[in-house]
Write a structure and sequence with these properties.
The structure is a homodimer. Helix content of chain A is about 80%, strand content about 0%. By secondary structure, chain A is mostly helical. The longest helix of chain A is centred in the middle third of the chain and has 42 residues. The first copy, chain A, is elongated and about 75 Å long. At the A-B interface, α1, α2, α3, α5 and α6 of A face α1, α2, α3, α5 and α6 of B.
Chain lengths: ~210, ~210
């Protein structure tokens, strides 16, 4: 049955502390998607009838584990970026000099708090793209796990997108803001279609 | 920053052991959705401008925590049901008597392994329904967390549905099988629309 679930993270998520919050949850869902793809690779490698997929599965496993490690680290990165932004908002604003310093710190904090979910969205898109390969070559006995993997990746990507969108309106650097929104829109468009196509392939293989 | 992420569960998910797998991941995503709604309640209660939502938020918090506790327990329940089913498949099948005993054990195991994700799907639907109330009454500063909550609940529900669908074809009790599929289809239909409507409300409030 593997390791029992440690609920400390869920307790922290449910608490009145703002971190970990939705950004960390997005990264964790992405990591879960990557983990499920790794499991599918492990349960395909060395199995009779899947000899031809051996090389592809080894490559997939490497890429899934790289994405998982990155996404796991993003749980803490997201909280750190949020906490830094909150500290900037709490800076003194009595004098003009203080106001200018605080304003610049908030803008820097907003950029970091936008880049964190953007990076999460890119990694979640990576999980979704891997799932499209896993559904073709993975062990059909665990094909539903590819399905759960792609759904976790898609929830992570859409969640990360919300965390980009919440920061963008306050950004003064509109070039940066527009680039972030354009990239998110492209990822959502590509991966929305890819997710539904992988999901449909999984469902067809289940029937 | 709250509790650091314990990666033991993710390591177990990624390993070559079939449990925890997609069923456990579904329950965990549902629990994350419930946890985020609890956080939104905590960050709304006692806040200026949200006095009128006090009673609703207390009720919502209670219901979210009940669902979270149930979904957290389902992570282990799902693995137990799967492991029991695998044990049934490993029973001896030399004599006719053994074959009959094994066949009955497999059918019982399949029913339990269908009921586990069905229960997860019901709880995930509960998270989605709560998010529809949270988006109307929750603190708008953390409205993106309601969005992540509903997306986590929706990923949990669709994932649980795949885990129902993978077992149903082998069930000999077709009345039971049809009831399970009908219930899942109804939950997917209701909650698919509800999720997109909550997501749209969140996005509108972000802009």
């Amino acid at each position: 049955m593997g390791a029992p679930l440690d609920t400390a993270f869920l307790d922290a998520l449910a608490s009145g502390e703002p971190t970990p919050g939705g950004g960390g949850a997005a990264a964790l869902m992405g990591a879960m998607g990557a983990a499920l793809l790794s499991m599918v690779c492990h349960l395909t490698l060395g199995k009779k009838g899947y000899e031809a997929a051996e090389h592809e599965m080894r490559e997939l496993l490497d890429e899934a584990e790289t994405l998982r490690t990155a996404l796991q680290a993003m749980v803490a990165d997201d909280a750190a970026a949020f906490d830094r932004l909150m500290s900037a908002y709490r800076l003194p604003k009595a004098s003009d000099e203080e106001k200018a310093y605080r304003g610049a710190a908030i803008q820097n904090g907003l950029k970091a708090a936008t880049l964190a979910p953007l990076e999460c969205a890119r990694a979640a898109a990576g999980v979704i793209r891997l799932s499209a390969r896993a559904v073709e070559h993975g062990n059909t006995h665990v094909i539903s796990d590819v399905g759960v993997g792609v759904l976790a990746g898609w929830a992570a990507l859409r969640s990360a997108a919300l965390n980009v969108q919440i920061n963008v309106p306050q950004l003064k650097d509109r070039t940066f803001a527009d680039h972030a929104l354009t990239e998110i829109a492209a990822l959502l468009d590509e991966c929305g279609r890819l997710t539904e196509s992988v999901h449909a392939r999984v469902t067809a293989k289940l029937g």
